[in-house]
Amino acid sequence: MSISDSPSRLEAVSAPHQPDVTPALDDLYRGFEQELLIPLWTEIGDLMPVHPRSKAVPHLWSWDRLLRLAERAGELVPVGRGGERRAIALANPGLGGRPYATPTLWAAIQYLMPGEDAPEHRHSQHAFRFVIEGEGVWTVVGGDPVPMNRGDFLPQAGWNWHAHHNAASTPMAWLDGLDVPFQYVVDAQFYENGRDVISDAERITPERSRSELLWGHPGLRPLSVAPEPGGSPLLNYKWEFTNQALKDQLTLEKGGFGGTVEPGHAAIRYVNPATGGDVMSTIRAEFHRVVRGAETAPVLETGSSVYAVFDGSGTVTVGDTTWSVTRGDLFVVPSWQEFSVRSEAGSTDSDEGALDLFRFSDSPIFEALHLNRTEIGG
Ligand code: 1HN
In terms of pTM, does the model score above 0.70? Predict the structure, then answer.
């Protein structure tokens, strides 16, 4: 039997539990082929594996090399209508040259030069920005200018108008995550261009966006507005709050009060303040801090993730692959590949000398469809 990805000829070959290859069997297979039919017995191993065998592979992109190429793109390639964004996607080597980090997730470094505008548009794809380096860019989402600084997480649910502008005197780079591959495979995409030039009133850089003034207070819900369906009404989860939440968990742990997910491992999920659920229907985002010398238990999960090393350094193991990682590096964990990290000493900004990891995944899709499974390995 031939089991392959390409729609090649069906071949009758001798195999256990199969009839001998005869001219009659060959004829049968030619008949299938002519009528565009494929018998299950030639495909079952690939279609129904005993556990997920992702075509995506574990892969690491070094931030230094990514940034150098993004800087070069900043010099050589303009940003504007048509191309829309100077975003450079991670192409998983197992996914056939498509700009897909995983089968469901797009991840890219986006680079904007001082004074540049990325024009307004909207799309059905859910998206977010996570700022790895720099400051001074704001993104205007549905008329609300939102400042972006290192460590900020900015979800932006599908069909919101958005444009970016770099008001600073230095270039800025950030991580974009979207559900582009997922929406491509299920044919859900819509896209529309917005205004070519955004108004002066939107060109201001307030310290806090309207969304933060309304929704940025823990446990307090404004009565003046109804949350938008489809995604979080809070457009910036500022680094100071994320950092403080992680610090507080570790302080509790040190006092013997627990508070962390496992020893030396503090973690938070970014949630929609109106619902407590994920920030978007297809993308989950989390932040993990693993203190120096600590190690996480190996975990197997359905669904795929992309990680950004925000700070610190350490060792990451995904399936059979182990890497040393450092600030800015990006890596992929495909579905059902055992994942663990170890934090190592290194120069770092974070108080604890910890390994700080931003993570996004397609878990909400798996949970909504009851396809989520987790095993703690080891
Ligand atoms: C997009 O609109 C942005 O708005 C970034 O910054 C990356 C990748 C694919 C499709 C649209 C952005 C994108 C994107």
Answer: yes
